[in-house]
Amino acid sequence: MPTGTPPDATEHPSPPPPPSLPPLPPRPADGHKGTFGTVGVIGGQAAGPHVMIGGPALSALAALRAGCGLAVLAMPEPILAAGLTIAPSATGLALPVDARRTLQPSDVAELIDRYLPSFHCLAIGPGFGADVAQQQIVIRLVAQDEHPLVIDADGINALAASREFHRDFRSPAILTPHPGEYRRLAESLGLHHDPADEQDRPEAAADLARRLGCVVVLKGRRTVTSDGVHSHINETGNVALATAGTGDVLTGVIAGLVAQFHKRPLGIGSRQITAGQQGGLSLYDCARLGVHLHGLAGDHWQSRNGNAGLLAEDLIEDLPAALYRTPRQS
After folding, report:
1. What distances in angstroms separate CA 238 from CA 59, 63, 168, 190, one per listed residue?
2. Is the dihedral of CA 232, 236, 238, 241 positive or negative?
3. Could you tell me which of 1, 27, 18, 3 has the C-alpha nearest to residue 330?
4. Quick one: average pLDDT of 129-140?
5. Separation CA 45–CA 290 (nearest Å)
6. If you classify domain 38-324 with CATH, what class do you get?
């Protein structure tokens, strides 16, 4: 079977969903690309010595493979064309730089402010760097409270480098740290957990989620997702995923689900109308479903190829098959 080809339903029936996971909302048969949301991806670094291009492109491709309608790559102007070569299905937004190819925070902020309303979800951090310019950009984004963010990699490192960032953190957000990134955030916030200890990981994720009022995806074997009240331990995935770029893919998958399905709760208290009551998903459900799908795609690849040699691009190609096997609401 070619990579990414949906399996025959009679040969490989869809397994029932894990009891703690919700089904995906239905995909309207008369939908168009505007129906399924736009993901913006801010990332990449043009200033040397380390030029980083692939991460944001992988996130954009993963968001599209997860079903979103449009993806926009926001990258430093000198490397945007290279990013779009990797992800030609995305469109581009050139971030202004100076003569040293360093981002110009005020100009970048003006550009993002102009386009932010068109994004249903904004992923920030893949390959972005965490210098002062990036710190200013990330802090500005987490200070807004309207548009959902998925913050990964250098987006997290930029926060950790800004010691008082929690005072400005108001955005509806999903943070996706690996243990090293978690430790940097925890140190800046005065949290004391071991994110590599299997017994401590659920409380580590929950404590960070409560502190920031966000959803935390603590990556690793049996990834933990928590909103500070509820926690979910993922059972899909395998060691083949331990390779460069798969975290960028996860960022894109989660952002793609948020863009398609997230509904913010309406009202407060006992009169609140939840995301589920509106026919959508909460950020917590988008995050844990994204982790499940990401791992399931990795399991599909492993079943054909073994547990070594996976490329992030291979994982992206297997996402549609994982989606195909994930139950949807009737």
Report:
1. 20, 21, 37, 32
2. negative
3. 27
4. 96
5. 26
6. alpha beta
Task: State the CB neighbour count (10 A cutoff) for residue 132.
Answer: 13
Please write the tens of the pLDDT for every residue from 223-276. 999 999 999 999 999 999 999 999 999 999 999 999 999 988 787 766 788 888
Q: What is the pLDDT of residues 65-98, one digit of tens each?
A: 999 999 999 999 999 999 999 999 999 999 999 9
The residues facing 40 across adjacent strands are 72, 122
Identify the bridge partners of residue 38 per DSSP, sorted by sequence position.
70
Where exactly are the structural domains of the chain? 38-324
